[in-house]
Design a protein that fits this description.
The chain is 47% helix and 18% strand. The chain is of the alpha/beta class and 348 residues long. The chain is globular and about 55 Å long.
């Protein structure tokens, strides 16, 4: 890393075969009202026209830098960007996403106001083929936008870490004080869930958070094409990331939070197992049998609500029945949670 430049934001964009969206992604950065930034594009061995497009963009604006590397994965690309960064802050943006023109200014404003290590914003989700500029994306007075502060011990709690307004489980839209990251890097052995683990490690290390109450990071969600197919490598990576967080929560005595994390993991495992059955993926099914039995024997599994454990057993063996029952439970608990939040006047 070169010497840090005061107040500069290093925008890090990993790219792999992203020719379709690179221009719109970069354009959203160039339109920022906050101009003290460098834009670092890391081409992770793309096989399409990504490199050509990036080189053309670099010629138009001296703040854009392009780094080329062999294909090593998104974690390695982000790590390359961190190592090459010179700014006081790091901002992570994926090549198929875009950001509101005031986002960097608003997040920097939060960092200065609350003196936090992480500033975050909510994500605006839309399928790639249905994207339209969000109606709420208008220019606002930065100083009057609603926001709040979270201590690290609160940010680690399940209710805040996974909340749709904090989005702490995703790296997109996070402005992070460079000194907070220090020597920490993304786990290059993980292909999925690496960003969730990375953020949680920062919180585990004591990072506090300021939250901008706007959906100013556009996440371009892949088009929904029905039942999702999972590979064994994807599931192994997601499992490692989830159990890392759960085990840290157990270590810190956050048992109820660990139980929620376990519950989310069990739901994912049901999907992975069903995917293996549908496509007859022998390797995935063998892996699933191993971790299903492992979870059943774990201490935290016994702390999950009884009906959730029953659903897990059912989902692993009789998915069609599980799917119908789970939907009924989902509606019931959503209504129940909504009622309790109204009564408690949840700050979120």
């Amino acid at each position: 890393m070169e010497d840090e430049v005061a107040n500069m934001v290093s925008v890090i964009v990993p790219i792999y075969n992203g020719e379709q969206y690179i221009n719109s992604c970069v354009k959203s950065v160039l339109k920022q009202t906050y101009t003290d930034y460098e834009l670092i594009l890391i081409d992770d061995g793309s096989e399409d026209r990504s490199r050509e497009i990036c080189e053309r963009l670099c010629e138009k604006d001296k703040r854009i830098r392009l780094i080329l590397q062999e294909h090593k994965g998104v974690s390695a690309a982000r790590n390359t960007g961190i190592d090459a960064s010179t700014g006081k802050y790091l901002f992570f943006l994926d090549s198929d996403d875009i950001i509101h023109p005031q986002l960097l200014e608003a997040l920097c404003n939060l960092q200065e106001r609350y003196q936090t290590m992480i500033a975050t914003v909510s994500l605006y989700y839309a399928e790639a083929d249905k994207f339209q500029k969000p109606a709420g994306w208008k220019y606002e007075d930065i100083d009057t936008i609603e926001s709040f502060y979270l201590k690290s011990e609160d940010a680690k709690k399940h209710q805040f870490f996974t909340h749709k307004k904090t989005m702490l489980y995703a790296i997109g839209g996070k402005l992070i004080l460079r000194a907070t990251v220090n020597s920490q890097r993304f786990d290059e052995e993980l292909t999925h869930g690496e960003d969730t683990r990375f953020v949680y490690q920062l919180l585990y290390g004591g990072a506090d958070v300021s939250v901008l109450l706007r959906s100013w990071y556009y996440y371009r969600r892949p088009q929904n094409k029905g039942f999702r197919v999972f590979s064994v490598d994807m599931c192994r990576s997601k499992y490692r990331a989830a159990t890392y967080i759960r085990d840290r929560q157990i270590e810190e005595g956050m048992v109820s939070d660990a139980a929620y994390t376990e519950c989310d993991l069990l739901g994912s495992m049901i999907e992975w197992n069903e995917s293996g059955k549908r496509v007859k993926d022998v390797r995935l099914l063998q892996y699933m049998r191993k971790i299903i039995e492992k979870e059943k024997r774990s201490w935290i599994f016994s702390r999950v609500r009884c009906y959730r454990r029953i659903l897990f057993y059912l989902g692993c063996e009789h998915y069609s029945i599980y799917d119908r029952i789970a939907k009924v439970f989902e509606v019931y608990y959503k209504l129940n949670d909504k009622y309790r939040k109204i009564m408690k006047r949840d700050i979120l």
